Amino acid sequence: MSNDTYPATVIYPDGASMAISLPLATDRRLSAIQEIVGGCIEGIPLSSGRYMFLSENGNASAVNHIATEMARDSESIMADDYIAGVAVIVPMELSD
Question: Where are the domains of the chain?
Answer without folding.
Answer: 5-94
